[in-house]
Amino acid sequence: MASTTAPETVNEDIPQNDSGKLRTFISILRKFIGVPDLAAVRFSLPSQLLEPRPNLEYWNYLDCPSAFAAIGTADEPIDRMLEVLRFWFTKDLKYVKGKPCKPYNSCLGEFFRCNWEAEKNAPPINTKDAGGSASSASSIKSARGDPRSSSSVSVPQTAENPTGPTARISYLTEQTSHHPPVSAFYISCPEQGVHARGFDQISAKFTGTTIKVSPGEHNFGIFITLEKRDQETYQLTHPAAHLGGILRGALSVSVGEAAFITCPQTKIKCILQYIEDGWLGRAQNKVEGVIFRYDPENDDKIRIKDVPDKDVLIRLGGSWKERIVYTLGPKPVDSHPPEKQTVIIDLNPLFVASKVLPPKEAQAENESLQMWDGVTQAIMSKQFSKATHVKQELEEKQREKARAREKNNEVWQPAFFTQITDKGGKPELSEKGKQVLERIQKGDWSLQGIV
Q1: At 185, phi and psi to the nearest 5?
Q2: DSSP string, 153-171
Q3: How far is CA 92 from the centre of its chain?
């Protein structure tokens, strides 16, 4: 939890407006122009600039759990790829509906767990019926918003009962490494026979006008496995994101470069090309994509233009912040009339779903919501000096533990995963991790006999 740079000197008990916070943020960032990786530096921000929520709670991909629960329901491989894509475009609703924020840095061994009660309201995708702008694929509904998804954070709440049939999705994540900062995660929906896992790690660089965030060396993306489809596995790699608007005083997120989704079993691949906007132009947040047949043993297509027309199954286009459509065949999306463009997902009516969180009395000392509760409560009550003091005490405890391990030549091991990192990007649950996840799936938050 160590930081190489102290917080900027500010009078923390005097509340700042958004422009004041941004000026403070920029003055800190200027010290890091040219630093290869901000994420490795792990600099500390004044408590006034922090989103009062733990990083492990914030970084999850279940902003729209209904889309995740629906993966694998289609019988045709191409339709299952579209189900994966529907999930992909909903996984970061927090950036579509909210503004960028900086949560707390995670501590080594810190963990977070929760459930989602996902409504099974995602209509089936069937490309045989494609060709209508009013596709049922876009009609996913959000049952209830997450009160912790906005900048005005409330205390953890239990999700209300949704209105229709649900599937429970369980989530377990742990900070497995501090240098570099890496966390492992596992998502499970047994009823639907789908699970996902991966390592989260970012690399960030400040150019003076934007912050570019890319996957770290241990982040190979999200791996989704369909248990009822002969363990069919999809790898979803992350594109680069840019935190811009710093000079204009209005922070915003844009996405650039490419993302890839591959499935070796079906031999179907998707390339998504995010189109970066000119710095003088209005942000369009455009994305183009192609789904095609590929050879997993000779996977050399990394640009849309590299894909021969004869291999193209589907073209995609739209705005990743609004609506995505697809068309069948090799012709560009724009060459098709609107009635031949099928909507795969419309993000406009969606918002971040609620989590079901463990009650406070069931939380362990190193569980995210418990570990950071003192800092959160101080920030919420605008006692920023107190928040900084509590945060510094917490950080010093982590340093003391690190010094003790070094003195005793102890090698730290994660509690819920078998490895700190690996070269494949697919973490395995430890026996403790399996036990915790099984209890979460049953709605049992007890950790007795496990930790």
Answers
A1: -140, 155
A2: -----PPPPPSS-EEEEEE
A3: 6
DSSP 246-268: TTTT--EEEEEEEEEEEETTTTE
Q: How far is 325 from 338, CA to CA, in rounded Å?
A: 10
Dist CA 1 CA 106 (whole Å): 7
Let me know: does 360 contact 370? Beta carbons within 8 Å. Answer: yes
User: Of 271, 300, 302, nearest to 288 (Cα)?
Assistant: 271
Please give the distance of CA 217 from its chain centroid, rounded to a whole number: 17
H or E segment and range at residue 414: none
- Domain residue spans of the chain: 1-121+139-255+355-451
Contacts of 129 (CB under 8 A, 6+ apart): none
Over residues 297-311, the mean pLDDT reads 96
For 137-181, what is each residue's pLDDT tens digit?
A: 455 765 445 545 433 222 233 444 556 799 999 999 999 999 899
pLDDT of the residue at 132: 46
Cβ within 8 Å of residue 21, ≥6 positions away: 48, 49
Rounded to whole angstroms, how far apart are CA atoms 371 and 367?
6
Q: What's the predicted TM-score (pTM) here?
A: 0.89
pLDDT in tens, 44-74: 677 878 889 999 999 999 999 999 999 999 9
Distance from C-alpha of 12 to C-alpha of 132, rounded to nearest angstrom: 55
Q: Calculate the CA 230 to chain-centre distance.
A: 26
Quickly list DSSP for 283-320. Answer: P--EEEEEEEE--GGG----SGGGS-GGGEEEEEEEET
DSSP H/E element including 137 = none
- Asked whether 341 and 316 are in contact (CB, 8 A), the reply is no
Tell me how far apart the alpha carbons of residues 109 and 366 are, in angstroms, rounded to a whole number: 7
Would you say 282 and 245 are in contact if contact means Cβ atoms under 8 Å apart? no
Euclidean distance between CA atoms 89 and 259, whole angstroms: 12
- Dihedral angle of Cα 24, 27, 28, 29, to the nearest 10 degrees: 120
Helical (H) or strand (E) element with 435: helix 431-441
Q: Which tens digit of pLDDT belongs to each residue from 107-144?
A: 999 999 999 999 998 888 999 876 644 344 455 765 44
Partners of 235 in the β-ladder: 223, 262
Question: What residues pair up with 364 in beta bridges, in sequence order?
Answer: none
